[in-house]
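Methods — Computational structure assignment.
A single polypeptide chain was analysed. Its primary sequence is given first, followed by the predicted tertiary structure written as structure tokens.
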Amino acid sequence: MLDVCKYILSLKIIRRMLKLESQLLLDRCPYCSIKRPNLKVNHELITVDHRAANKRRWKIYKCESCGGVILANTNEGTGNNEVSEIYPKREHLDEAIPEKPRTFLQEAIDSIHAPSASIMVCASSIDAMLKELGYKEGTLYSRIAEAKNDCILTPGMEAWANEIRLDANEQRHADEVKGLPSPAEALQSVEFAKALAEFLFVLPSRVKRGIEESKQTHIDND
């Protein structure tokens, strides 16, 4: 909980520092995750609500690397031109994911603009997830199969995990037959790794927390 609070506080500090200017100075693009992206204004408009209140000035920025569009606004009433909202928001991985797989997964997200590296780190994230669950012996292939046999992974999850494993191997060994992966392919690998982390760690954590809170509620009501 403390880490989440620190993250939220850091977002507020970052937003206070950002200005709605001709260039939006984000640390990373929320789409391709390239560091210090070149985000230039593409369009600007002012909106109000149905009572002609809540006046906000919006700017639409385009990432010169990936073409992704970012929307940001400032409250016209403040007069300080500070950014109030940004869409889409940069993703934050749940603290329920153990540190090592979470670190690998964040690196995979942050390197989508470099697809080969992103896919290889995705495989490392899956490897670390299985080790966190006690599957430490043998190759990644054998540990994926073992987790499936123990009903930790579904057959579909096993197939997808092996797909990422094979893709990562192709990048490590510079496969001459298969071409270089695209950012879209890297994103697909990242989305699976995120879904796997959600299934293996985040959902069980939420269920456990919900059960504990329910028990505490019953105790308080007795």
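Note: Strands lie at 39-47, 56-63, 69-75, 85-87.
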